[in-house]
């Protein structure tokens, strides 16, 4: 009999691809497949080359078309030129990508992975799926029809041995969770540090913008504890933090879930598959620990949250509402109720008082807290033991009564000085030229963060060909790093061009300053091989800035200016790192 088995591999940066992978796994379970779910870097690489069963890849996009961190090892491996062209001739595979079509390199990791697997002889089960955040139904707009097609093909190849498990039946929990009898003298397991983590102490937390400015931007300075083994990061690299839920939020949540009485009792966690839980999560711990350090109770819940919550509601009205959110037809309603107003898990559970999660299902319902990455604003060549972060505090209003706040920025804002936290380093997407070539930086708002490390590093090496276009609303409101920038200017180590958009009757943006300096910029680009960097909000700024550089090139006699700028992109002389 043909083996009815699936391997589902995900590459996920913020949790969406992982969530999608487990959603596919639940659907596979209903169709009586034996399923294993792992991150791409967890799996034994050789198992893909010997697989006699279908492998489904789910991968998101990070940065400017980069693959997620937990996909990089596998991706580098299958790119090896020494791998025979028919090495995957026995592989049946499917690929679904998660991305945003407003980015130029939309779903690049999924597209490249699909193509590479085909180059090595793999046989696609269905066409590649491209989930798009810009779809009016979000990623589900592409995922639902792709899954329908996938199951049609797979069930033709692997006929059902018995009827599909009805949607009304809850899947088995992924972990066994039991309270430990305190009389046996058990204790909480020690929490292991995530590999690559460095301990750092918060030594400074200062608001950079004026008190009456609408946006709070903070400078956080961390001192690395082990000064004898301080890591050396490169300009443009990021600091990675894993935030925590505040004690007050955790206490309220535990009360809401009726778990407060048992919040500090010892639990024994036994995963059915060890790949479900990261190694750093203790197997013997408490609910309070889990909902402080591991579960993101302030997240905006995804469709899978409602799919699982449906099974545990004791109210027919609530079950009907939850079921609607899990259907293709109900996705617009889910967008209106949850996604657009950014309603959190805590608020959803407050809305649904008859829907409570059983203890044994907490790992199947609540999402994991995602790491947050921030461009480092300091240069290790100048301050090797200090890591500076320029952070815009997330605080905005929707239709909800309470303002929406960021889990990480709220945690940072409430952090006391001298608190020690874990900090890791990750490579950024922008790279400085190896030599002294001029650099042209365009960094409105917090886009300036990485450029502070660029300039600091180059100044430490006596390189003064640094040109910065900085934009903000008001010179006296949100001119970030003003003192240090002006110091570099006074020492002839930086040429600075500012656009204070609201300080005059007509708004002025960085792209106008770029056009004003067209002769200088063309000289730097055409005669001195200058490298251009653009960093900041991805809404309109990157396209407007690229058009400004295209105009500069065109004004200096180049017939196909757009192709000229595109050639700079391909050769790494025009780099962007932008975000929403």
Gist of the model:
Helices cover 32% and strands 21% of the residues. The chain is of the alpha/beta class and 580 residues long.
Explain what you see.
Helices cover 32% and strands 21% of the residues. Helix 8 (303-309) runs antiparallel to helix 9 and helix 18 crosses helix 19. The two termini are 50 Å apart. The strands form 5 sheets. Strands 1, 2, 3, 4, 5 and 6 form a 6-stranded parallel beta sheet that branches. Strands 13-10-17-8-9-14 form a 6-stranded antiparallel beta sheet, with helices on one face. It is an alpha/beta fold and 580 residues long. Strand 4, helix 4 and strand 5 form a beta-alpha-beta unit. It has 19 helices and 22 strands.
What kind of assembly state do the chains in view correspond to?
Answer: single chain
What structural category characterises the helix and strand content? alpha/beta
Q: Give the fraction of residues assigned to helices.
A: 25-40%
Measured on Cα atoms, how large is the radius of gyration? 26 Å
Main sheet overview: 6 strands, parallel
Chart the SSEs and their pairings.
Blueprint lengths: L4 E7 L4 H15 L3 E6 L5 H6 L4 E6 L11 H7 L13 E8 L8 H12 L3 E2 L4 E4 L7 H18 L17 E5 L18 E10 L9 E8 L13 E4 L5 H10 L10 E5 L12 E2 L1 H7 L9 H7 L6 H11 L4 H9 L5 H7 L10 H4 L6 E4 L10 E7 L2 E2 L7 E2 L1 H7 L6 E7 L12 E4 L6 H12 L5 E7 L9 H9 L4 E6 L9 H7 L1 H11 L2 E7 L3 H15 L5 H10 L3 E6 L1
Parallel strand pairs: 1-2, 1-3, 3-4, 4-5, 4-6, 18-19, 18-21, 19-20, 21-22
Antiparallel strand pairs: 7-11, 8-9, 8-17, 9-14, 10-13, 10-17, 11-12, 15-16
Helix pairs in contact: 6-7, 8-9, 16-18, 17-18, 18-19
């Amino acid at each position: 009999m043909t083996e009815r088995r699936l391997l589902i591999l995900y590459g996920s940066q913020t949790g969406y691809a992982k969530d999608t992978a487990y959603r596919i796994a639940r659907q596979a379970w209903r169709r009586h497949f034996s399923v294993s779910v792992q991150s791409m870097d967890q799996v034994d690489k050789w198992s893909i080359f010997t697989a006699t069963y279908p492998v489904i890849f789910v991968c998101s996009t990070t940065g400017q078309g980069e693959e997620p961190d937990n996909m990089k090892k596998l991706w580098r491996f299958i790119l090896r030129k020494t791998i025979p062209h028919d090495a995957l001739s026995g592989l049946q595979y499917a690929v679904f990508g998660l991305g945003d079509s407003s980015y130029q390199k939309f779903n690049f990791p999924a597209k490249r992975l699909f193509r590479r697997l085909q180059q090595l002889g793999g046989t696609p089960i269905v066409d590649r799926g491209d989930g798009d955040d810009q779809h009016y139904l979000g990623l589900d707009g592409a995922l639902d029809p792709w899954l329908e097609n996938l199951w049609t093909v797979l069930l033709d190849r692997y006929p059902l041995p018995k009827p599909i498990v009805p949607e009304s039946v809850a899947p088995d929990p992924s972990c066994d969770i039991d309270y430990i009898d305190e009389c046996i003298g058990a204790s909480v397991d020690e929490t292991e540090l995530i590999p690559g983590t460095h301990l750092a102490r918060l030594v400074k937390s200062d608001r950079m913008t004026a008190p009456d400015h609408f946006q709070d931007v903070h400078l956080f300075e961390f001192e690395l504890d082990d000064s004898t083994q301080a890591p050396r990061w490169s300009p443009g690299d990021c600091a990675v933090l894993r935030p925590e839920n505040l004690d007050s939020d955790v206490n309220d949540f535990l009360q809401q879930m009726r778990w407060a009485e048992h919040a500090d009792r010892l639990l024994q966690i036994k995963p059915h598959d060890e790949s479900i839980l990261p190694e750093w999560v203790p197997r013997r711990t408490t609910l309070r620990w889990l909902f402080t350090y591991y579960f993101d109770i302030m997240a905006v819940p995804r469709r899978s949250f409602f799919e699982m919550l449906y099974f545990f509601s004791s109210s027919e009205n609530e079950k009907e509402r939850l079921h609607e959110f899990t259907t293709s037809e109900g996705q617009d309603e889910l967008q209106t109720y949850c996604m657009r107003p950014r309603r959190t898990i805590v608020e959803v559970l407050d809305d649904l008082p008859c829907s409570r999660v059983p203890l044994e299902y907490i790992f199947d319902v609540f999402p994991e807290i995602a790491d947050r990455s921030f461009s480092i604003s300091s240069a290790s060549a100048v301050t090797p033991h200090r890591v500076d972060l320029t952070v815009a505090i997330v605080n905005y209003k929707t239709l909800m009564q309470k303002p929406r706040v960021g889990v990480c920025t709220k945690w940072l804002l409430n952090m006391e000085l001298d608190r020690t936290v874990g900090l890791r380093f990750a490579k950024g997407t922008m790279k400085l030229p190896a030599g002294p070539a001029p650099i042209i930086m365009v960094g409105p708002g917090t886009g300036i963060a990485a450029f502070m490390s660029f300039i600091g590093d180059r100044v430490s090496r006596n390189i003064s060909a640094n040109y910065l276009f900085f934009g903000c609303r008001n010179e006296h409101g949100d001119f970030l790093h003003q003192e240090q920038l002006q110091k570099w200017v006074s020492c002839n180590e930086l040429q600075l061009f500012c656009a204070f958009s609201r300080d005059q009757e007509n708004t002025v943006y960085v792209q106008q300053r770029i056009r004003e300096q067209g002769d200088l910029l063309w000289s730097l680009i055409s005669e001195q091989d200058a490298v251009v960097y653009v960093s900041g909000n991805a809404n309109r700024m990157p396209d407007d800035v690229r058009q400004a550089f295209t105009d500069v090139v065109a004004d200096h006699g180049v017939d196909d200016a757009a192709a000229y700028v595109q050639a700079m992109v391909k050769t790494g002389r025009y780099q962007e790192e932008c975000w929403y």
